[in-house]
Amino acid sequence: MNYEDWNEFYLRICAEFRYDPSMDAKAAELLSTLLKGCRIFDYRNIAGRMCLITGPKLDPERDDHPGSYDWTVVADSALPAYYSTYGRPGIIFTDLDGDVDLIKRCNREGTVCVIHAHGDNMDKIREHVPDFRSNVIGTCQSAPFGNLLNFGGFTDGDRAAFFMDTMGFDTIDLIGFDFETPVLKKGQDPEQKRKKLQWARELLRYLSEKRGVDFREGYRIRI
Predict the structure, then answer these.
(1) d(CA 88, CA 85)
(2) Neighbours of 133 (CB within 10 A)
């Protein structure tokens, strides 16, 4: 998704959740500055035909082995379950509200970490981003600039899907995403999380239609 198309969704999201775009821009500036001390991963090296994106309701007993995909991508809420079964993934999408110690461990072992900036996570950006030295990509919700990208998406999972679509993957499989019954992190408001998941559903449906694929919900969603 190009930024002009994304901005239409973004403005609606800001209105619904009462987000202040200027705070998103400040978070982006902060992340951009801190990433200047890192070796940025060239996102153009993320290429292939099939990718797998895993969500927080990952069930290893139901899944094909990730090795059948060119790239495996994990939303940070799914990382502990994924790591305990399969080891480190190829890519983690995170706004640093998951198991940050495990995220950093995977990054040291070679995982690409796509770190997202928004107005509510500046403290986490300040605390944790200096610990990442390489294999990092920065993203933001506001207008992209410099070393930050924005290919669209709102939650970790749908952001990953838009990213991989931009990379040209023919098949994007998402597993373990439940848009009705959220998996809550400590301190999260259940109703707000449900609203975010409704946006994730709408955005994935939009992406699926753009790709010419019927959007069918289930444990495995192929777009």
Answers:
(1) 9
(2) 11
Structurally, the chain folds into a number of domains equal to 1
- Tell me the three state secondary structure of residue 203: helix
Indicate the helix (H) or strand (E) that contains 160: helix 156-166
Q: Which long-range contacts (CB under 8 A, 24 or more apart) does 67-76 make?
A: 69/173, 70/169, 71/46, 71/164, 71/169, 73/160, 73/164, 75/155, 75/156, 75/157, 75/160, 76/103, 76/156
pTM (predicted TM-score) = 0.95
Give the chain's largest Cα–Cα span. 44
| Per-residue pLDDT tens digits of the chain, which is 223 residues long | 899 999 999 999 999 999 999 999 999 999 999 999 899 999 999 999 999 999 999 888 886 677 789 999 999 999 999 999 999 999 999 999 999 999 999 999 999 999 999 999 999 999 999 999 999 999 999 999 999 999 999 999 999 999 999 999 999 999 999 998 877 677 777 788 899 999 999 999 999 999 999 999 999 999 9
Is residue 140 within 8 A of residue 115, CB to CB? The reply is no
Distance CA 139, CA 117 (A): 6
